[in-house]
Amino acid sequence: MGQKPFNDTFLKACRREEVPYTPVWYMRQAGRYQPEYREIRKQYSFFEINDNPEVCAKVTRLPVEQLGVDAAILFADIMTPLKPIGVDVDIVPGKGPMIGNPIRTVADVNRLRAIAPQRDLPFIGDTIQLLREQLSVPLIGFAGAPFTLSSYLIEGGPSKDYHKTKGFMYAYPEEWQALMDKLADVTIDYLTYQIASGAQAVQVFDSWIGSVGADDYEAYIAPTMEKIFTALKATGVPTIYFGSGAAHLLPIWNHLPVDVLSIDWRIDIQAARALGIEKALQGNLDPSTLLAPWEFLEKKAKAILDQGMAQPGYIFNLGHGVFPEANVSQLQRLTKFIHDYTKK
Length: 344
Ligand code: CP3
What we know:
The model has no long low-confidence stretch (mean pLDDT 97). The chain is an alpha/beta fold. The chain has 15 helices and 9 strands. It has a single domain (9-342), classed as TIM Barrel (Alpha-Beta Barrel). It binds coproporphyrinogen III. Residues 27-32, 41, 46, 73, 75, 77-78, 91, 93-97, 142, 205, 207, 320-321 line the site of coproporphyrinogen III.
């Protein structure tokens, strides 16, 4: 621990510098597909792990040690900063985040408080500091984006179509903007705190933004994302923006002050570059392929790498998170393959 020379391949790729091989990490790389995680979960609830720096650091390190990935991502959830702003949130196994007091009116929006991360979430800073002593790869901090957070806040839990969320956005544009402004401040304050504590890059998860059309994104979402990434730029650490099913938004994202765009399998890396994207790209293997025979997975990975490696500024990842049915040995083999295949 800590004795290995520091591996900065991931940070170099974020900055579009030359790298000795393609760096790789996996969204949701810590979680239930790991027997060791399931064992720890028998003892602690999700938030008990999150709130306990020793255990949280251990869970964060698990995939780095087990898979050999080039970055760690802080173990937490996009819901973590919502508790202190007054949201009654629980993570229900098999269901996902459930909100006891969903947002229905402008009074509900006004009720949300600002966060003071040092006071409200001291365990996050403590975990990050601990990890920086232990890790020999960069530590990624993260937060949810305002649209994706508001989808849980308004729907009350997971959704397939986001009718209530978008209905609120269309029906109450001023209240929607007030909600976006509040959540943007939470995201900025929370990520700035993570960076001050030692996070070396940050990813903003906008998992459900693909449900919004391009014109509506411009009108209702883009100013908020512009504000967030402008504020984060001042910290100097690389920033990553992830959305799923969001290929139609790439031309807009290209103008945001963010360093890396994380894309899914619905658009090829070379097709994204052909749109004129100059930023670094991250992605985009369909996580379902983890269940396919190795030969199939290898072929898919090769095709992605051939496109990704064609120019500097590429990080291998999945197009969405690892899921509980994935298996460790397949991810180990994939990680090794990515390194071996791309070594110069
Ligand atoms: O990547 C990592 O290893 C860091 C940990 C991480 C978690 N959630 C841990 C977690 C990260 C980066 C997240 C982000 C997150 N959480 C997102 C954005 C990424 C994505 O997948 O779109 C979203 C939408 C959430 C909301 C959320 N929290 C979901 C959909 C779930 C899964 C629900 C389920 O039961 O399948 C959670 C719970 C959660 N977050 C778990 C983990 C490991 C499972 C909790 C458990 O142990 O039961």
